[in-house]
Amino acid sequence: MGLFTSAKAKLLCHLKLATFLFLTGCTAVSDYRPIAGNEFGYSERRLKENTYEVSFKGHKRTSQEEANDFALLRALEIAKTLDYDFMLVTSTKDKTSSRSGTSDRICYPNVYGEQVCSGGGSYRSTYPGITIKVQFFDKKPTGRYLPESLLVVDPSYVKLSEKYGLEVAKAAAIPVKKSSAESKNPVLRIAMQKLYTHEMLTEGGWDLSACSNLPPSTYNTENKDNLLSILIANDTGNSIYDAYVDLRGNINFLKSRNAGESYRYTTYLGTNWIWFTDGGTCLGWTTATKKLSETSQRISQLTESQ
Description:
With 306 residues, the chain is α+β, with helices and mostly antiparallel strands. The chain has helices at 2-31, 64-81, 153-163, 198-203, 299-302; strands at residues 41-48, 51-57, 86-94, 97-102, 105-109, 115-119, 122-127, 129-137, 150-152, 195-196, 227-233, 240-245, 251-257, 262-268, 272-277, 282-287, 297-298.
């Protein structure tokens, strides 16, 4: 009996350790995502031609270091996309929030048959957040600033990406169409959850004629009442890419969807959603409204609405 109990206790310890390693090893990487359609992630706002405000909101398992790093990483991504060499952080603002509540009391027998109880008390969860303001430069700026506030874009981007095990975007990140020798049905290479301008896509061979009147989104992430849940069905008969448009009018690709696939997105009012064929042709776009959350939506109908 003693040997059985000991083995069971060891198994429980191994399971706990595996769970801990899984959570600590994977959470940070999966946290780096656009906030549209999520309650946490990054967002950005263009203030001037070379000045942006970038924010990151975390959940209760996000550390403050991760929130800070992910805001910087998103700013560096924008700098790379716009082909700047230097980035100066001009201000930072702590956006950490907290929530309080009471947990249920749960009791269960441990491996020794003893009754163990937990919970039943009050708790307070912290949600790290930060907003930074950055300026981009082609050359090293002059004037007075703290040395640690100035980042060289390319090496800083690579260093932060590798720190969290994120795939580093290659220099040829602009989508390029495969040659006919490589594929009978040319596919444009794009990276999921990456930002692309209209010019980048057009130069890469994408057909944006059906999206020529696409405006920037107008969502407001500060108001949680603006969140919607929309059920979408891919009835096009082919694989497609879905994406959303940010506040500057740039396109963020999210995921490839199979023919016949149904899926749900939580998004903000005023977010412009756009769909592409896997051959790089824009099918059309639509704006998230409360009416869309009332019934399931087919892509063929959504792309005909504009």
